Structure formats: structure tokens, C-alpha cells
């Protein structure tokens, strides 16, 4: 056999064989072993030499470039991560509540395109539209509902954990594997630096498109992911690295395989371990934090939330399906769950809110990342100053105070859905003897007031009436209870409240019949109730007190009227006013005119002036008596004329009904409405509509009759003449007066009177 001479082995190259074959794992540069597999060897017998030609190796086989650029975004080791920039720009996604903004965006684009095509200057219009868009965006995002914030937290283009990490770190190296045979891509961990300080980062990672979401399992970790996070927590605790966690998951992956692998046990291990870690922990909710899947990396000293992030024990859709049996009630569930950042800060679950730009974090991811960086650095500066025991106690107390309460302070619990209403506490009845004594004392006070001509004790009357009304209501309730009608009464009251949505709405005949039957049954059996004598006694006392109050009010009104008449007479008997009135009468007689309208303008002005002076004096009298005076007007003639006009129009309406078939049509319409009930069919609706149109047409013909129009014009002419002679309400003597408008309104009101009666 051929033998190989060791001394004759020659290698082409400048390095020694021992150097070249040395493993790259010891940090010495050399040719990888796989390169030797591609070398060509030659052999000779004895005098032959073995030659080997090495293949060309890669220029740099280090895990970092030879000349790293320190200004590379995310650090020089970012190429080690699978997370690369997207080749295609993400598609714009508009949420339902953002659709009103699309119209403004479309207008801005159209105007810009028109400006480019025509070459005209539309800068003012574009600026105006952009200002409107910004204002609309601000109004929308400052008044978001909880379910709208849920939509923003789930937005497909929202920045993910790695987006934020590469924006806020100087260097970042991703660490993989749970050391049990699996690396869950839904949880990413790694070491990074911020301003020269090392941190352990870990967080839920969602995908930026469908392909990535499938790869990342839509941000839902398996037990392997939580065990990978647990391994990195031990690593950070051993080396003293503060931990920063980013929460963005709908929840832990709930499939059969995950349960078999111990999903619950993995989460529980993380919860227990995080409370014993001796390094500061800060958690940031950047999207949605769902249940235990979020809490498994969220037991931190400080929990911060982005402005539009949500943190919940069950999603609004799941909560609505459980409580209201429909996912359509998700908006109501989102409001009741209190899952937004603001609500959770008020409940002391979250420790701070990180602002987002208008439009959400996806509108400006870099700015949002910088806000996260500022908040994290500030929180870490505070926590790193604490001693180890103080840090552990701080973390423990944060969670122990959640849901805290104070003993001894009564709290009225909110009424739950589909639960019986809380009954009002039973009020002790006032004994009849005590009530009679109080009423008798009040009567004596009323008698004394009448004899001494002093004011009656009005406050005492009102208080006693209110007290008696409450006592009578209690007696009626007790009577209903003893007669066995209380439950029926409560049910009917609830039906009545549901059916009567407005005061003008008519009751359903069936409900009205039920109420009438209960009323008759109650009235028939009331005399046999045990508390009937007490009830009648209190009703009698209430009637007496009410009569005394009515007499008191009438007496007061009579006294006030007498005082007003007395003061008015004193005003009219004043010598200066009498002299002015007599002088005016003499001037009118000397003018030898048949009507006031023929007087000259100077005399008319004198009449108006004297009238104003008298009205002013009367207003001062009313004010001195403590009465509010809005205006002093003489409306006696107006009311008489309006009454005559109403009578004539009503008579015309009745004649129109009797002389036509309107009455029969009305009865037919009532019959059709009774047949149709609450849910009329199409045929019934057509009949009712046709009858309604016929009745309206008949009313219009009756009201537009020539006789009624002539009466109206005649009265209108008389009103104009009267207004001209009296000078009108505003003190002028022009032919047009505001009083004419009241009679035009009267005509229109009476014209609609028949329709109101229907």
C-alpha cells in the first residue's frame, strides 16, 4: 500500500496547518473545518508529496462586521435577529370610527392633484382643509370610547415589541431557546443597552403581516415561550441586569398541545419567580394585555401603559358572550370592564400612561418609542436607588393594594343586571295620636294668625302636608300587602313604565283593562283591610290641612288684590295726573274730531306720553308690593275680541262636522286603528293612511269657508282700528300693531283645533 510521508505534506497558503485546523470556537481566526472538506488532496508513493488546495473562505466569519458602524440603527448586531425591515410598505388600515376622516383626506388629495394639473395656487384651500382635518382628528382621538381604544390596540400596523426595542436600544442581541428543545417565536428575549446601561428585554412579538403572524402565532405564547422568559429572568437576576418586559398579546395559546405541555404550570412558575427576583422590573403594555398570558411577564415594580393600550382579564367580546349572550354587546362590556389606561391608573393597577401621537402609535412609531424610552429610564432611575429588600417589598405591596377596601364604610352596591331591585327600608309609622296632636297644634296656630291678622305658618303647613302624604302612601302600601295585591301592583307598575314612553301616548287597551280591574278590586276590599280606620283618619286630616292652606292662599290673594286696588286708586287720584288727564280731554273736545285716528300727531304724542307715565307709576306700585313686573298692558279688549273669534271659529267647526260625513270617517278610522293593534299589516296601514288624508282634506275645506274668512277679516280690521287709537304696546300710534299677530295665531290655533281633538 502506498504510504504517506508526513514530512512531505505541503499546504498552499501562508498559515501553518495547526493554525488553520484550529477550531474557530476558541476565538482564533482560521479556516472553518467545512472549508477543508472542499480541499483537493494528491498522493504519491514514497517520493510523491501530498498537496492540498484550500477553497476561498468568506472574508469575515465573525458574528459582527470588521468595521462596525456605531451609528447603525439598533446596534451593530441587529443582523443576528430574524426581524428585518419589511420589503413592502404596510397597507393603510382605516378603523370604523375613523371613516369620517377619509372624506377630508380625499378632498385634500383632490385639491392637490388639481393644483398640480392646472398649475394654479390652491395653497390657502389646502391649508384650510389640513387644519380642518387636524382639528377633526384631535376631536376624535380626545373623546375615544373604550371599544375604540381596543380597536387601536389591535391595529395591524401598530408597532411591535422589536420595533420599539431597535428604536430605543444602542445595541441589542436576541437570545433564543428554553433549553428544553424549543424556541417559541411568540416571545422574544435579548440583552440590550440604553444610554450605556444593560437591560434584559423580553416581550410578546406579533407579526406585521399575515405571514409573520402565522410564524409568531399571532403573539400567543406556548409553555416553551414562558419557560424561555423564565430562563432569561434567572439569567438577568444572576448578572444583575434590570428587566424590561413588553406586553402585547391576546392571551396564552389555548390549544390541546399547550395544555398537555403545562401551560398553566409555566405561567404560575413565572408569577412566583418574578416576585422573588432581586432586580428592578418595569413592564410596558404596548397593545393589548390579555389575562394570564400577559401577567406571566407583567409582575413588575411599575406597570406602564401606552395611551391607547388595554389590559383585561377577558376580552370585551368574550365578556359580552358570557354576560349578554352576544358578542354585539362588546362596546358595553368594554366600558364596564374598565380596561383602558386611564381607568386602570385610577384603580391603581397601572402606574403611568405613556402618550401616543394623534392617530395612534402607528401614526409615528419613532416618536412613540422615544416616549417609551423616556418613561423607562425615569422608572429605572427611581427603582435602581432601592435596596434589594425594599425593591421586593415595593413589588409585593403594588399587587397587595389592588382591590383594597376600607372597613366600616358602607357602600351601596350597584344593581346587577337581571337581579331583583333592592327594596326600600321600612319606615316606622307615626302613631295616629301623635299626628292628631301635631295637626291640632297647627290648627291653633292658624286660628291665632287669623285673629291677629298675621301671616299663616306656610312652612309648617307644607311640612305637615308632605308628612301626611307619606303616611297615607305607606297605609295604601300596607293595605295592598294585606289584601294580597302587592305583587300584581308591582308588575302592573313595571308594565306601565315600559309601555308609557311619553305622557301623550295612549295606553294599550289590555293594559288599561288590567289597571281598571285591579283598581276596582282594591276599592271593593279596602274597607275590610285592618288599617282602613287609620287610613281614613289620615285622609281626613290631610283634607283639613289642605283646605286650611287653600283658604290661606285665597285670603292672601284677596288681601293683595285689595292692597293693589287701593294703591292704584291713590295713583289715579293724584292731583298732577288728574290735571294732565283733564287737559287731554279738553284738547280732544276742542279738536272737533269724530275718531281718535283723526287727531293730529302732536296730540297723539301727548296721549302716549301720559299713558306711559300712568303705566310707569302702576309698575312702581306692583314692585313695591314685591311683585315681578314684566310689562303693564291692558288686554281686556283683546281677550274679549279673541273670545268672540274663538266662539265663531268653534261654531264653524261644529257646523262643518255636522254638515259632512267627517264624523263617520273619524269613527271608521278609530275602528281600523283598534283592529290593527300594535303591529298593523300592510293592508291596514294603507286604509288608515287613506282615511287620514280624507279627514285632513275635509278639515281644510271646512276651515277655508268664505263665511269664517269674512268674520276673521272683519275682526282683524276692528283690531287694527283699536290698536291705532290706543297707540299699541310699544307706545307708537302707527296702523300696524303687534296685537294683530296674536289674532292671526288665534286663527291658526283654532284651525288646528279639530285635528287636535282627533
Automatic annotation (TrEMBL):
This is acetyl-CoA carboxytransferase. GO terms for biological process: fatty acid biosynthetic process. Gene3D superfamilies: 2-enoyl-CoA Hydratase, Chain A, domain 1. It comes from Vitis rotundifolia (Muscadine grape). HAMAP family: AcetylCoA_CT_alpha (MF_00823). Pfam families: ACCA. It comes from the Eukaryota. It catalyses: N(6)-carboxybiotinyl-L-lysyl-[protein] + acetyl-CoA = N(6)-biotinyl-L-lysyl-[protein] + malonyl-CoA. It is an enzyme of class 2 (transferase). One of its GO terms (cellular component) is acetyl-CoA carboxylase complex. Pathway: Lipid metabolism; malonyl-CoA biosynthesis; malonyl-CoA from acetyl-CoA: step 1/1. The keyword Lyase does not apply. Residues 432-478, 574-620 form a coiled coil. Residues 128-382 form the CoA carboxyltransferase C-terminal domain. Keywords: ATP-binding, Coiled coil, Fatty acid biosynthesis, Fatty acid metabolism, Lipid biosynthesis, Lipid metabolism, Nucleotide-binding, Transferase. SUPFAM superfamilies: ClpP/crotonase (SSF52096). GO terms for molecular function: acetyl-CoA carboxylase activity; ATP binding; carboxyl- or carbamoyltransferase activity. Its EC number is 2.1.3.15.
Amino acid at each position: 500500500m502506498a504510504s504517506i510521508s508526513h514530512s512531505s505534506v505541503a499546504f498552499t497558503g501562508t498559515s501553518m496547518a495547526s493554525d488553520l485546523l484550529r477550531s474557530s470556537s476558541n476565538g482564533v481566526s482560521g479556516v472553518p473545518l467545512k472549508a477543508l472538506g472542499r480541499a483537493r488532496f494528491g498522493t504519491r508513493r514514497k517520493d510523491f508529496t501530498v498537496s492540498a488546495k484550500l477553497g476561498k473562505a468568506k472574508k469575515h466569519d465573525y458574528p459582527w462586521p470588521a468595521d462596525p458602524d456605531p451609528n447603525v440603527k439598533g446596534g451593530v448586531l441587529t443582523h443576528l435577529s430574524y426581524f428585518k425591515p419589511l420589503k413592502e410598505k404596510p397597507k393603510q388600515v382605516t378603523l370604523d370610527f375613523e371613516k369620517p376622516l377619509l372624506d377630508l383626506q380625499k378632498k385634500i388629495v383632490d385639491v392637490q392633484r388639481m393644483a398640480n394639473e392646472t398649475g394654479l395656487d390652491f395653497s390657502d384651500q389646502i391649508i384650510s382643509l389640513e387644519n380642518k382635518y387636524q382639528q377633526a382628528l384631535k376631536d376624535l382621538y380626545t373623546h375615544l370610547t373604550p371599544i375604540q381604544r381596543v380597536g387601536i390596540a389591535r391595529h395591524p400596523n401598530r408597532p411591535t415589541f422589536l420595533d420599539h426595542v431597535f428604536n430605543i436600544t444602542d445595541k441589542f442581541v436576541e437570545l433564543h431557546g428554553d433549553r428544553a428543545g424549543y424556541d417559541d417565536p411568540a416571545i422574544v428575549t435579548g440583552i440590550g443597552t440604553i444610554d450605556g446601561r444593560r437591560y434584559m428585554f423580553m416581550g410578546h412579538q406579533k407579526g406585521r403581516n399575515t405571514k409573520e403572524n402565522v410564524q409568531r402565532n399571532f403573539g400567543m405564547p406556548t409553555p416553551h415561550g414562558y419557560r424561555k422568559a423564565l430562563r432569561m429572568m434567572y439569567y438577568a437576576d444572576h448578572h444583575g441586569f434590570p428587566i424590561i418586559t413588553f406586553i402585547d398579546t391576546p392571551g396564552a395559546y389555548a390549544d390541546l398541545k399547550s395544555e398537555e405541555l403545562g401551560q398553566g404550570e409555566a405561567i404560575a412558575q413565572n408569577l412566583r419567580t418574578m416576585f422573588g427576583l432581586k432586580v428592578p422590573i418595569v413592564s410596558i403594555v404596548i397593545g393589548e394585555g390579555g389575562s394570564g398570558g400577559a401577567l406571566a411577564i407583567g409582575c413588575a415594580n411599575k406597570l406602564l401603559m401606552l395611551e391607547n393600550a388595554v389590559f383585561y382579564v377577558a376580552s370585551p367580546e368574550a365578556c359580552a358572550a358570557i354576560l349578554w349572550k352576544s358578542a354585539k354587546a362588546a362596546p358595553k362590556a368594554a366600558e364596564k370592564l374598565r380596561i383602558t389606561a386611564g381607568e386602570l391608573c385610577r384603580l391603581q393597577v397601572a402606574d403611568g400612561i405613556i402618550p401616543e401621537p394623534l392617530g395612534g402609535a402607528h401614526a409615528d412609531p419613532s416618536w412613540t418609542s422615544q416616549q417609551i424610552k423616556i418613561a423607562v429610564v425615569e422608572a429605572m432611575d427611581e427603582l435602581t436607588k432601592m435596596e434589594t429588600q425594599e425593591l421586593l417589598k415595593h413589588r409585593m405591596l403594588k399587587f397587595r393594594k389592588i382591590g383594597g377596601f376600607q372597613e366600616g364604610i358602607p357602600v351601596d352596591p350597584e344593581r346587577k343586571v337581571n337581579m331583583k331591585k333592592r327594596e326600600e327600608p321600612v319606615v316606622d309609622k307615626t302613631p295616629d295620636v301623635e299626628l292628631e296632636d301635631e295637626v291640632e297644634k297647627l290648627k291653633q296656630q292658624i286660628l291665632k294668625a287669623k285673629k291677629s291678622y298675621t301671616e299663616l305658618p306656610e312652612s309648617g303647613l307644607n311640612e305637615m302636608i308632605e308628612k301626611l302624604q307619606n303616611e297615607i302612601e305607606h297605609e295604601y302600601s300596607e293595605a295592598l300587602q294585606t289584601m294580597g295585591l302587592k305583587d300584581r301592583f308591582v308588575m302592573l307598575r313595571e308594565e306601565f313604565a315600559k309601555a308609557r314612553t311619553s305622557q301623550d301616548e295612549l295606553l294599550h287597551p289590555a293594559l288599561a283593562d288590567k289597571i281598571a280591574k285591579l283598581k276596582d278590586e282594591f276599592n271593593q276590599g279596602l274597607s275590610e283591610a285592618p288599617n282602613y280606620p287609620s287610613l281614613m283618619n289620615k285622609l281626613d286630616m290631610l283634607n283639613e290641612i289642605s283646605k286650611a292652606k287653600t283658604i290661606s292662599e285665597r285670603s292672601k290673594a284677596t288681601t293683595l288684590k285689595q292692597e293693589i286696588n287701593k294703591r292704584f286708586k291713590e295713583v289715579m287720584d293724584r292731583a298732577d295726573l288728574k290735571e294732565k288727564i283733564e287737559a287731554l280731554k279738553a284738547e280732544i273736545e276742542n279738536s272737533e274730531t269724530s275718531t281718535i285716528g283723526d287727531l293730529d300727531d302732536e296730540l297723539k304724542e301727548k296721549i302716549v306720553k301720559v299713558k306711559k307715565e300712568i303705566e310707569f307709576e302702576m309698575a312702581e306700585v306692583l314692585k313695591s308690593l314685591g311683585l315681578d313686573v314684566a310689562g303693564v298692558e291692558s288686554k281686556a279688549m283683546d281677550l274679549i275680541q279673541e273670545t268672540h273669534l274663538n266662539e265663531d271659529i268653534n261654531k264653524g267647526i261644529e257646523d262643518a262636522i255636522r254638515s259632512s260625513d267627517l264624523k263617520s270617517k273619524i269613527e271608521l278610522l278609530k275602528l281600523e286603528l283598534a283592529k290593527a293593534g300594535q303591529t298593523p299589516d300592510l293592508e291596514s296601514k294603507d286604509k288608515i293612511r287613506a282615511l287620514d288624508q280624507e279627514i285632513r282634506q275635509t278639515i281644510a275645506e271646512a276651515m277655508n269657508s268664505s263665511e269664517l274668512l269674512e268674520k276673521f277679516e272683519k275682526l282683524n280690521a276692528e283690531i287694527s282700528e283699536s290698536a291705532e287709537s290706543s297707540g299699541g304696546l310699544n307706545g307708537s300710534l302707527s296702523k300696524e300693531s303687534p296685537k294683530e299677530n296674536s289674532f292671526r295665531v288665534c286663527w291658526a290655533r283654532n284651525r288646528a283645533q279639530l285635528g287636535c281633538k282627533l
